[in-house]
Specification:
The chain contains 4 helices and 4 strands.
Length: 157
């Protein structure tokens, strides 16, 4: 969840301070893609009115809710065998790669895999191909040296 300091943090939409004078909410860090249209919402505090008036506000809420749903321990199910992954060291999990549903990579948003099942994952090569193409096309951006998409590719390979 976003860390918000009342009277110091600003809304990424209106650039005004978040304080008790105007209702606001915090988003989970649902994407690491700085080039995605929803990145401004990820791990941010946003005025409720600004969110509802923004053209991507509803979509941002959908992704925040999806992220909140998949991080619950009871929903930590492997895409390969459908079983809950009990040991955290076996979990390979990622948030939203892209909000553009026309992108092949969007099929893998919020994927959760048990690393013990990687050899049996039928979509493994499709994920690697879609992710590498997305990177090569310059559709992924990072604000730090940590490239979450490259980490995902490396983990799955």
């Amino acid at each position: 969840m976003a860390i918000i300091f009342e009277g110091m943090s600003t809304c990424p939409i209106c650039d005004q301070l978040l304080d008790k004078g105007k209702p606001y909410m915090g988003f989970l860090p649902f994407t690491g893609n700085a080039k995605d249209r929803l990145f401004m919402f990820s791990d941010a505090g946003v005025h409720v009115d600004c969110l509802h008036n923004h053209p991507y506000g509803a979509l941002a809420l959908v992704h925040n809710n999806k992220c909140e749903e998949v991080v619950r321990p009871e929903n930590r199910k492997c895409w390969v065998d459908g079983r809950i992954i009990d040991h955290m060291e076996h979990v390979i999990g990622f948030g939203m790669f892209t909000s553009d549903e026309s992108e092949p990579l969007s099929k893998f948003n919020y994927m959760i895999l048990n690393r013990l099942n990687l050899d049996r994952w039928p979509d493994r090569n499709a994920f690697i191909s879609a992710a590498e193409e997305f990177l090569q096309a310059g559709k992924w951006g990072c604000l730090s040296e940590v490239n979450v998409l490259q980490i995902a590719i490396n983990e799955v390979k």
